[in-house]
């Protein structure tokens, strides 16, 4: 008899809603919830938190989320896996342990560490070139503030084997969060997988993870099809996707009964291709997925079957995301109304540029865009029929500079124009909105230099 495992999607990013997760636990029959809190730039946000308070650096939504979910999880034996540890998995586990302690709740919490590779990048030597433009890391080495390798499923599998109820990791590849419980439950071969049978199972598991890693986007949220998005029912009560996976890797994607959203061929295929540069070679730490061989079969009633993904042996290098100090920015948004809204905005922009030149304000760029007019699609935006007759125009100006004082002073260029510039009625926003910029440095590192340092520790509340 075929064994199956039922896995539910958790969050798709830091700040996502966890109410649909509760529906999956209570009505979806799931055994695992896998929650992805780390978008590509989230570590930069967490670094800013850590600079303010060394005890932070993790996705703080994980604590209230698990306080909300734990009673239902405990009652049904559901286990939880997340990468909310960010730059400080131990800090996240400690905060959760304190929160559970105040309620006298007992849980086994696993902490996965070892993804921090900043010492390697900062030490000097060759390698670690920019993944896309080939630039040498020497150009940013002195400004690096974090560097984390994307780990695979192995440490999570180990944590589950040790009986963890909750697994908190740092930077683990998104889909690996979902692959891990499949490897654990179904006995799939992970390390050393080279023949087609083993690699194809891992590829199916990785594809499942890719379909579930973005929460409601996998069940009709953010659906971009022209007009068809309007047929997605009850997005206010959307259900996050659930996968029922067999030991051969075949999977049925569905959602909890009584929830909104839609699971069908179109919503699933959109998510399958989301953020995929090469569908023939979707790289992960555990397997290289070829999704071009996959078959999606719409079974109706919010159920889609996925089979046929192909896999090749895992790469010998791991992806790294590093962050470095990259100057400062300040931004102000200013609105102008009819008559002559467009002309007023152009005059205001010219006045700002004139002040920057007169005062010799050091800056690399003054970025200008028009929210509601061209900010979404930039140069591809169709021109307004008659700019002179626009009812209102908002202009967003962003100063990029390596001088903090220049960013902090940008907002002071505007108030006087309230009485001495072109007439406006919509107001200023962001006169004191300045902040540090962190640049992102993607690169590769040999897995042999990372994995020996990965640790899985179990703590009990």
Sheet with most strands: strand arrangement? 11-12-8-7-1-2-3-6-4-19
Largest sheet: 10 strands, mixed
Report strand %: 15-25%
Number of strands: 19
Number of helices: 12
Descriptors for this entry?
single chain, alpha+beta, 6-stranded antiparallel sheet
How are the elements arranged and paired?
Blueprint: E1 4-9, H1 19-27, E2 32-35, H2 42-52, H3 62-76, E3 79-82, H4 89-102, E4 108-113, H5 118-122, E5 144-149, H6 154-161, E6 166-168, H7 176-186, H8 196-212, E7 241-246, E8 251-255, H9 265-272, E9 282-283, E10 288-290, E11 295-298, E12 304-307, E13 310-312, E14 317-337, H10 341-358, E15 365-369, E16 392-401, H11 404-409, H12 417-420, E17 428-429, E18 434-446, E19 455-460
Parallel strand pairs: 1-2, 2-3, 3-6, 4-6
Antiparallel strand pairs: 1-7, 4-19, 5-14, 7-8, 8-12, 9-10, 10-13, 11-12, 14-16, 14-17, 14-18, 15-16
Write a brief caption for the model.
By secondary structure, the chain is an alpha+beta fold. It contains 12 helices and 19 strands.
Describe this structure in words.
With 461 residues, this protein is of the alpha+beta class. 27% of the residues lie in helices and 25% in strands. It has twelve helices and 19 strands. The strands form three sheets. Strands 11-12-8-7-1-2-3-6-4-19 form a ten-stranded mixed sheet, sandwiched between helices. A hairpin with a 5-residue loop joins β11 (295-298) and β12.
């Amino acid at each position: 008899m075929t064994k199956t495992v039922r896995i539910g999607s958790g969050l798709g990013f830091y700040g996502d809603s966890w109410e649909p997760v509760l529906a999956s636990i209570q009505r979806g029959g799931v055994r695992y919830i896998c929650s992805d809190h780390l978008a590509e730039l989230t570590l930069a946000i967490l670094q800013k938190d850590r600079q303010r308070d060394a005890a932070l650096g993790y996705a703080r939504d994980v604590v209230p989320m698990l306080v909300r979910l734990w009673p239902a999880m405990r009652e049904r034996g559901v286990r939880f896996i997340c990468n909310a540890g960010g730059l400080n998995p131990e800090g996240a586990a400690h905060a959760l342990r304190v929160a559970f302690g105040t309620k006298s709740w007992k849980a086994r919490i696993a902490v996965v560490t070892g993804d921090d590779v900043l010492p390697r990048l900062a030490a000097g030597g060759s390698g670690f070139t920019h993944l896309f433009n080939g630039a040498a890391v020497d150009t940013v080495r002195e400004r690096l503030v974090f560097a984390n390798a994307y780990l695979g499923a192995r440490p999570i599998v180990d944590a589950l084997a040790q009986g963890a109820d909750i697994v908190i990791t740092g930077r683990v590849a998104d889909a690996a969060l979902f692959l891990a419980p499949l490897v654990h439950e179904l006995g799939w071969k992970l390390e050393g997988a080279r023949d087609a049978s083993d690699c194809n199972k891992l590829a199916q598991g990785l594809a499942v993870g890719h379909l579930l890693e973005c929460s409601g986007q996998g069940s009709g949220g953010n659906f971009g099809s022209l007009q068809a998005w309007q047929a997605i029912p009850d997005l206010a009560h959307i259900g996050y996707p659930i996968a029922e996976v067999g030991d051969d890797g075949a999977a049925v994607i569905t959602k909890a009964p009584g929830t909104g959203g839609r699971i069908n061929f179109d919503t699933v295929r959109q998510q399958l291709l989301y953020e995929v540069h090469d569908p023939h070679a979707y790289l992960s730490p555990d397997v290289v997925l070829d999704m071009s061989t996959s078959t999606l079969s719409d079974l109706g009633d919010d159920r889609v079957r996925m089979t046929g993904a192909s896999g090749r042996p895992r790469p010998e290098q791991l992806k790294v995301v590093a962050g470095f100090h990259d100057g400062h920015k300040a931004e102000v948004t200013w609105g102008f109304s009819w008559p002559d809204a467009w002309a007023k905005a152009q005059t205001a922009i010219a006045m700002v540029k004139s002040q920057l030149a007169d005062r010799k304000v050091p800056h690399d760029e003054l970025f200008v865009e028009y929210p509601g007019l061209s900010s979404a699609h930039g140069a591809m935006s169709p021109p307004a029929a008659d700019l002179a007759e626009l009812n209102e125009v908002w202009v967003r100006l962003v100063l990029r500079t390596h001088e903090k004082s220049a960013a902090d002073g940008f907002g002071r260029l505007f108030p006087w124009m309230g009485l001495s510039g072109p007439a406006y009625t919509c107001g200023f926003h962001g006169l004191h909105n300045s902040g540090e910029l962190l640049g992102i440095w993607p690169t590769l590192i040999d897995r042999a230099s990372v994995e020996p340092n990965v640790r899985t520790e179990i703590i009990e509340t």
